């Protein structure tokens, strides 16, 4: 059953909202239904008993699982801010890196370029994840 890419993207954004592991989303490969869980509110939907069956359900990945964290930032810096790669590496050696990274991007006039680069990378990675998990995407 085809699943809307917008729905997959929405679930991905939910999973990545907050800290790692705070939110989870699952996709039933057979029905295309999503199931949501949050550490703060518990199950937003009642999770099926067989939610751990990877043949039937796919857990929506987070950015780290798709290498969309620090590796993506460094790829961006190498391509678009080559003079600042060392600064970016330093920024990501400490906590709170994304806020400082975005400050750097703002100062360099590259914030919009980053958002476009990140969105493009997320879409490619999610589509590859769907292919790998035998999820048919209908746009």
Order of helices and strands: EHEEEEHHHHE
Average pLDDT confidence is 91
Largest sheet: 4 strands, antiparallel
- Low-pLDDT parts are none
Question: So what's the overall shape?
Answer: elongated
- Oligomeric state as shown: single chain
Total DSSP helices: 5
| E-strand count | 6
Secondary-structure-derived class: alpha+beta
Which strands sit side by side, in order, in the main sheet?
Answer: 4-3-2-5
Rg over C-alpha atoms, rounded to the nearest angstrom: 17 Å
| Amino-to-carboxy terminus distance | 12 Å
Binned strand content = 5-15%
Share in helix: 40-55%
Secondary structure: elements and pairs:
Blueprint (H helix, E strand, L loop, with lengths): L2 E2 H11 L7 E6 L5 E5 L3 E2 L13 E3 L10 H11 L4 H7 L5 H12 L2 H22 L4 E2 L1
Parallel strand pairs: 1-6
Antiparallel strand pairs: 2-3, 2-5, 3-4
What does this structure look like?
The chain is of the alpha+beta class and 139 residues long. It has 5 helices and 6 strands. The protein has a 4-stranded antiparallel β-sheet with strand order 4-3-2-5, covered by helices on one side. The protein has a two-stranded parallel sheet with strand order 1-6. The model has no long low-confidence stretch (mean pLDDT 91).
Give a quick rundown of the structure.
With 139 residues, this protein is an alpha+beta fold. It is 45% helix and 14% strand.
């Amino acid at each position: 059953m085809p699943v809307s890419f917008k729905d997959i993207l929405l679930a991905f954004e939910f999973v990545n909202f907050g800290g790692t592991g705070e939110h989870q989303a699952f996709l039933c490969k057979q029905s295309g239904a999503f199931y949501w869980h949050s550490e703060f509110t518990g199950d937003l939907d009642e999770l099926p008993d067989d939610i751990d069956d990877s043949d039937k359900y796919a857990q929506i990945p987070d950015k780290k699982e798709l290498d969309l964290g620090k590796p993506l930032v460094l790829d961006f810096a190498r391509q678009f801010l080559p003079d600042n790669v060392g600064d970016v590496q330093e920024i990501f050696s400490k906590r709170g890196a994304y806020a400082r990274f975005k400050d750097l991007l703002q100062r360099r006039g590259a914030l919009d370029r980053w958002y476009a680069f990140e969105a493009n990378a997320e879409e490619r990675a999610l589509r590859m994840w769907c292919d790998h998990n035998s999820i048919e995407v209908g746009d």
